[in-house]
Write a structure and sequence with these properties.
Elements: H1 3-25, H2 31-69
Helix pairs in contact: 1-2
Amino acid sequence: MSVGNNGKTLAALTKDLMLRWEETRNYWRDAKSDEFERRFLAELLTGVDKSTEVFEHLEKLIQHVRNDCE
């Protein structure tokens, strides 16, 4: 599996997590659920967004190194 694919997998799993969170919010809607979303999920989404950009950049760098070595 390539580095770029790892980023895509991370993004897909995060999307699935957020879909499940929305389902959970149908049953758990109070101040604590709002706090959980702010403290953990918002931060997670920000981190995943940044990480997927890094994965894409690493994939390009690795491809560049491979091309230079051929």
